[in-house]
Amino acid sequence: MSDQESGTQTSPPFGLRTPLVILAVMWALIGSTYLVEASFYPFMIRIMVAPFLGALATCIWWLGFTHLNWLDRILFPAVLVATLTALALPQGDKALFYVMAALPWAVTAWLGLFLVTPALTWTTRKAGTIIAIVIAVGFFGLLRIKGLDGEFKPEYEWVFKPSAENQLLAELAGAKSANPANTAAPAELKAQPGDWPAFRGPAQDSVVRDLEIATDWAKNPPKTLWKHRIGPGWSSFSVVGDRLFTQEQRGDNELVACYHADTGAELWTHAVATRFSEPVAGPGPRSTPTYVDGKLFAQGASGHVLCLDAFTGKPAWTRDLRADTGAQPPTWGFSASPLVHKGLVILYAGAQDKTAIAYKADTGDIAWISSRQTKPELSYATAHLVTLHGVEQILLLSDRGATSMDPLTGAEIWSHLWETNGVVRCIQPAIVDGTDIVIGTGLGVGSQRVHVDCTNGKWSTTEVWKTARFKPYYNDMVLRDGHAYGFDGSMLVCVDLKTGDIRWKARGYGTGQVLLLQPQGLLAVLTEKGEIALVEANPAAHRELAKLKVIDGKTWNHPVIARGRLYARNGEEVACLELPKPNPKAE
Question: How many alpha carbons lie under 13 Å from residue 141 in its C-beta half-sphere?
């Protein structure tokens, strides 16, 4: 019997240089991804490539070059696989995130223990290493990975802490039924100046045109009128009068919800028995309801399309985008908000030969389906209504580029090819000078300004500029005085619209969303951490005037300012703040 087999071996039966190199290279790869600009590729290196290569190199070295007996050679890879499998099985669609989060620590526990214990007996080292691997992997079983933040870093919380959604469901189950009185008659529920009836506002551009506010929040801060839990989802709001409309997930039901804008009290909900979830952003709907003439139009993440009475929530008609077009929910779910125009409800579909669909607003009957000989397209964007060269048209952005369609027929007017090799386009086009559009794309692709021309009825497009320094992913931009203000990854930026040059960049907002308060030239930036910041829309320099915490949790939803109030939400909380009125003597 050898010393190793008897457990009396006190020196390592293999060299230590190789495990040192494996650990150094693996952690150097992981660490280097935090030193470069956040995008999809560093994320893949950090969470997939480096852990996998570290584990693969460890197993190859252990099985092929340590000269141990085969039982010992197989033991540790088997323990690693068994513990990772036990960790992954309960995690559903997030299983891969758990495995890749735990894997580098398991490899470190395995190799690290052998590196620091050469004087111990072989039996002790084996037992200690097995325990170390189990502890390293098992620790992640105590954590819940909620998803990824805007820089593709996992969000953790303790598994024994109830999720925000479960806390909401428990509160709703324990609350007494309440039916707050409707304070307006149905005939009075009409969109007025100052309302926000659709995604990104009346003009789909995230611009507030009728409000001035105080900017010295140290002396005159916004006042929180109400705040409470809300179901998960990435919808924004429509605000009409004293009604606040949004979409959210509650358990196995996806809801269109109406809250009292003044108090936050729930007035009605309409539920569809479906639940959409994906591992990066989690569960819940993505689109925003649209209000038109007493009706509310909404699309769910799984493809259902609803027309509801805005005052009562009762359905007028329902459709299924999947059945009507053959489209299947993309990885991120159906996300386009309904565009309602001249009696038609227009939605992006993205199916083979069926890019978009229009329903009749009064009946739900299909009015038209666009038909083009093309592959299925990827998009998170909403149909965008514009007038170019006097011609009313809708713009759709996808991984193929930009397409213009007649809103009444769906016929293609023009298209501009700029393919992304599978990177989805998530934001809305920005319109410049009534003739040009800016297309923004994240994950390393960049932005492009395109001039659209119409001569003798013939349409054409020409690239004005293209830059890889402005890469908005799901963060829409706003325009003022020849400049765009938006996000390049996690940096707030100002972009010269003539040249595409970056005028300034600023950290501190995560991957947030931005509104423009046009009268004062102010940016209202809702940060990824749930803060609201006031920033000057000034191309000369970045200047932040104020910042205030509003809600907790990862915040990707577009904020809304309507009738002097800020409405902000994420997948956990919703809040209403009354913005301070300006004091001419003080400011």
Answer: 15
